[in-house]
Write a structure and sequence with these properties.
single chain; about 190 residues; alpha/beta; Rossmann fold; two-stranded antiparallel sheet; 9 strands; about 30% strand; globular
Length: about 190
């Protein structure tokens, strides 16, 4: 069993859904978490984490952290020396994610209210950036917050882009087509 599979067993999705949907948490489908947002389909999350390739000790930005499930999965993957910076636009979901992680005993995630720019520039650069909502175009400010050698995984329209930052000016992009996400809300 690979590391991602182990982490999926350790971080139960049922702890990150609305109480009335815990019976549906094992279904391989997105579920509503309120405010027009969803917790993503497990198969899609597994693919995205595989493309992201988080390493022990990484500093990871989780954009659109929602219920905190992807943040919790990332926290386990990077281990206690790693750190997850979870950013969410909707204040109630910031608190929902924070409480879900706290109840699950996860200590290496910090939750932030999204600001005027995508990401969290004040904490950059990051080894990895995961975005769990679809952008209309690739936000340049997220690439700027990524370390050289780092990876960004982001849905853009109906594709998931796997982006590796080769240098300050160059990126390598692989496109994985055929995905649907809630829209990435504009920064406030």
């Amino acid at each position: 069993m690979d590391t991602i599979d182990k982490v999926f067993d350790q971080v139960e999705r049922s702890r990150f859904v609305l109480p009335e949907l815990t019976g549906s948490a094992d279904l391989d489908m997105p579920l509503p978490i309120g405010f027009g947002q969803t917790i993503s389909q497990p198969t899609t999350v597994r693919l995205m984490l595989g493309w992201l390739e988080p390493q022990r000790g990484d500093k990871v930005l989780d954009v659109g952290s929602g219920s905190g499930w992807t943040s919790a999965l990332l926290a386990h993957l990077v281990g206690p020396k790693g750190m997850i910076y979870a950013v969410e636009l909707i204040p109630e979901l910031v608190e929902f994610g924070r409480q879900n992680c706290r109840r699950s005993g996860i200590k290496n995630v910090h939750f932030y209210q999204a600001g005027k720019k995508y990401g969290l520039p004040k904490e950059a650069p990051f080894d990895r950036i995961l975005v769990s909502a679809a952008a209309e175009s690739l936000p340049q400010e997220l690439i700027e917050q990524l370390k050289v050698g780092g990876k960004l995984v982001i849905p853009v329209n109906y594709d998931i882009l796997e982006i590796e930052k080769i240098s300050d000016k160059d990126v390598d992009i692989q496109k994985h087509p055929g995905f649907v996400f809630v829209p990435l809300l504009p920064a406030q």
